[in-house]
Amino acid sequence: MKATHSLVLLATIAFSATGGSYAQSAGMSMTGDGMSMKSADKPNNDSQAATHRTDAVVKAADPSKGNVTLAHEPIKSLNWPAMTMSFAVKDKALFKKLAVGNKVHVAIKKQGADYVVTEVK
């Protein structure tokens, strides 16, 4: 009976050790309640460099603060639905094309934690 308990204990420890390391490598973490599906905190260099494009309508623009509010179409490359949101604008010269009510085609890139408008057509 004692050998059976020891075997079960060893199997549990081995399973926990391999399961925990797999969870961490998959961007998950172990918590007191079980596994959390939180994504890893490491930046993804591919998404940092990627340019995403969409059509949008300018809802508000504030050159003094360097941001624009766009009602944009879905952005498939980011798996984003259509929505209205605010973006930083990389170059103040782009505000010439960002008048309220304008229909525009924009390019955005992730810079740090934010997405920034880098082109406007």
From TrEMBL:
Coiled coil: none annotated. It holds the Pfam family CusF_Ec. Residues 33-54 are annotated as: Disordered. The keyword Membrane does not apply. Keywords: Signal. InterPro entries: CusF_Ec, CusF_sf. Residues 1-23 form the signal peptide. The keyword Signal applies. It comes from the Bacteria. This is Copper-binding protein. It comes from Piscinibacter koreensis.
